[in-house]
Model the fold of this input.
Amino acid sequence: VHYHGYSILDLRHFGDLLLLRVRNTWGKSEWNGRFSDNSSEWQKYPMIRKELEGEGVYEKKDDGIFWIEAGDFLENFCVLW
Done:
């Protein structure tokens, strides 16, 4: 959602991959690109998904919380406070 507030909850490095865990302050409506809840990217990195699931920080539900790769974050979010 343009011109809307989000919170960065977590940041994880997995080799060359940098993922951010982000929350939409509305508590619904999420990123639908790479590393979104239902993205096929998770199939390429099953150990990462398993680690995040084990920590309780990866769930497939519309709760406004999602993972996004750093490059996609920088392309889609233009202002940080």
About this structure: The two ends are 17 Å apart (CA to CA). Helices lie at 41-44, 46-54, 70-76.
